[in-house]
Write a structure and sequence with these properties.
Elements (H helix, E strand, L loop, with lengths): L8 E2 L2 H7 L5 E6 L4 E7 L2 H14 L14 E6 L2 H15 L9
Antiparallel strand pairs: 1-4, 2-3, 2-4
Helix pairs in contact: 1-2
């Protein structure tokens, strides 16, 4: 399944509040070179804010996201019953660096 969501919002607190929806769906973190992480949530904005908070409050050794400069995020709003299967399919196909591929 190819990514069919939005692209290219900087992974900053302000951009998350401005652009990420509070709906069900999948979200992705990526750099210009690679897919970094794909997640799924009942509230995309809340999940992205939690990840951003983790990055800001823990050290580089504790958080895998520090290894990826210039992170951006995108999202794909999906009904709850579609979300998990889409997430599994995307992780298997796109093989993001920080997801387990055996979902």
């Amino acid at each position: 399944m190819p990514w069919n969501g939005s692209y290219g919002f900087l992974f900053t607190h302000d951009a998350i509040l401005r652009y990420a929806p509070t709906c069900s769906g999948v979200y992705a973190l990526f750099t210009p070179q690679s897919w970094v992480y794909i997640g799924e949530s009942d509230d995309i904005q809340r999940s992205l804010l939690e990840l951003k908070s983790l990055v800001e409050h823990l050290s580089e050794e504790e958080v895998w996201l520090w290894r990826y400069p210039r992170l951006a995020f995108g999202y794909w709003g999906l009904a709850p019953h579609e979300r998990v299967e889409c997430w599994k399919s995307l992780v298997q196909e796109l093989r993001p660096k920080c997801n387990r591929v055996t979902v």
